[in-house]
Specification:
rod-shaped, alpha+beta
Amino acid sequence: MISVRRTLTRSLALAVLLVGVVTFVGVFLFVRARVIQQFDVSLRTTAETIAGLLQVDAGKLELDERDESLTEFRRPVRPSYFSVTDPAGRVLLRSHALRTALTDFDSASVGAASQISLPD
């Protein structure tokens, strides 16, 4: 015969475990969504900064790299990278670190998304 105490203990343990798992999953999904949202905002801000510094001079796209807002692209160790392309996928402009890292890179062989190895 199963005692009432054992039945209640098992039921309570199962309920606490279920609440804990649901809480963990909820917190995980919330934090994940916030981190992705913050990453997207940061990426959009960086893209808007770069777009604001672009200039067309004699039909050629140039970037004012003297601006202090681009320091993350000039770091000697683990620099950030950017590439500006036209709608056809042709590279119009790259960050200095990306230009030096990808001297052999063929942009025509890249589709909408690709994976390449960077020197970091």
